[in-house]
Design brief:
With about 90 residues, the chain is α+β, with helices and mostly antiparallel strands. Strand 1 and strand 2 form a beta hairpin.
């Protein structure tokens, strides 16, 4: 399972949707990235493949960052997503 996580301006909690296949997650990541690069606000409608009822809509101009990572099968250990000083 792959997670595409969005950091929203002035919001401490990230929003995330999941994709089963890496290619689908990369396509969504690239879609969000290109909407950020365009500079003009667009309405993005996202859905989660794991929790199919989970949907969200947001303006691309409110996205501060986007990241893609593989969700670990184990609850503990392993590398955390994002950037950290821990090795």
């Amino acid at each position: 399972m792959y997670v595409v996580e969005l950091s929203i301006k002035l919001n401490p909690m990230p929003l995330a949707v999941q994709r089963k296949e890496l290619s689908d997650a990369e396509a969504l990541y690239n879609q969000i990235k290109s909407s950020l690069e365009s500079g003009s606000p667009k309405l993005l409608e996202l859905h989660c493949e794991k929790e199919e009822h989970k949907r969200l809509s947001l303006l691309s101009s409110e996205i501060a960052a986007v990241q893609l990572y593989e969700k670990s099968a184990t609850a503990g250990g392993g590398k955390r997503p994002g950037f950290s000083f821990d090795s």
